[in-house]
Amino acid sequence: MSCVHKTAVIDSSADIGSDNTIGPYVVIDGHVKIGNNNIIDPASIITGNTTIGDNNHIHGHVYIGNLPQDLAHKGGSTLVRIGNNNIIREFTTVHRGTKEGSATIIGDNNYLMVACHVAHNCRLGSDIIMVNAASLGGYVEVHDHAFLGAFVVVHQFCKIGSYSICGILTKITKDIPPFMMVDGNPAIVRGLNLVGLKRKGFSQERRELLKKAYKIIYRSGYSISHSKEELKKLEDNKDIRLLLDFISSSERGILLKSSNDAS
Fold it and tell me: What is the pTM of this model?
């Protein structure tokens, strides 16, 4: 049985699972579906066509499922989908999709710190950390194990690759390849995210191969097409395949400016 504070307001159409703790002045409005063993702290609002999985902790004054900040939104049923084991801290906002039937999606085991913003139609994978006030524009993709520092701002339609790290106050307008360390305004690739890779259990052998890939892309002077051909010689390795697939699928283009060629 769930523990629901007497001041919480829950729509009769909401579907609430078992063993949830719903705090004072929480508002759950509309066709919201919430799984089991979640904690929703005081004064949070969950609205719209929102589905939340199990074992999430939604802290106070979070707003999930509000209208997108997009003039293209003309009403209709749009969605938010949130997985399991996420921590969403105070004053974070997650907006629903823009076009009919579209969704904003957050996976599992993510940690969104105070005052983060996830805009309409964003897609977040799993095991991601967004530090205080990191903000994503519409249609941004953040892949598994990425780390976004405080006050990072990501332009709409950009992609942030797996195991990458974006330093505090970074302005991102291009796609960030997996495994990279990025910082600054304008953003600059500083090198590999070596500390993060060690923490994630990457062996020295894996790190050394990624160093070689980094040098091909950012130190060889090759064009991106030539760099891809060189990387293909190593593509029987899963990390190199991940890197190649990301570069090949990039629509905005990857960030190519590195600390060596910064003015």
Answer: 0.96
